[in-house]
Amino acid sequence: MNSGATPEWTRPDMPLPARPAQPAAPPPATLAMPAPLPEREPEPAPAPVSGNWHRFHYPVAVFLVAFAVTALAVTAARWSGHRADMAGYAGAGLALPALGAVKAVQLLLLLTGLCALLSRRDVWLLPTLFGWLAGFGVFAVLDVVKGRMLPLAEHGVYAAVFAALLAVSYTLSVKARVGGPAGGQGGQGPRPSGLSRTQEFALSAANRWQRAPQG
Predict the structure, then answer these.
(1) pTM, whole model, 2 decimals?
(2) What is the DSSP code string of 128-194?
(3) pLDDT (mean) for 88-102
(4) 122: number of CA atoms within 13 Å, CB side?
């Protein structure tokens, strides 16, 4: 049984041969964490339209501003003629102060029209229209008292135009209020319970006008 065995390998007093050195295992690779993505800033919400502003209020406001600028420019160009016209209403002594007061009111109406256009609030638009209507109405009454037929026709036409614009603007304000956020786009929301009889009448007229082209 022991034939062919190496004596050095079988002697118990001799150490066993050393095992061959094995290469050290590399440390486990650490997975690199991806860099966090930068957080996207939330997009700012569109600024809501303030007040009961309808998209058709824009042409009305632009007309008011242009009309006021034209009236002031024409008066500056024809100051003597307008002063003579005012003398026919208030007398020669009060012609200059009266003309200055009228132009001051027109300048104030220009500023309120600009406020309505820039701030998009009908609270500025409606008084501006009423101011022009009242002014031409006063001149129409003075024309009747003085018996001036040609200025009466002119002032009467202007008063009728501003009365129509006032009614249209008021109707658009009610329409925008009823429509809520979509009122400026012709929204058909439920009617609020706080409408007055005048507002309900204006809303009914607006709905009939809106259905007329469809019919």
Answers:
(1) 0.64
(2) HHHHHHHHHHHHHHHHHHHT-HHHHHHHHHHHHHHHHHHHHHHHHHHHHHHHGGGGGGT--PPPPTT
(3) 92
(4) 24
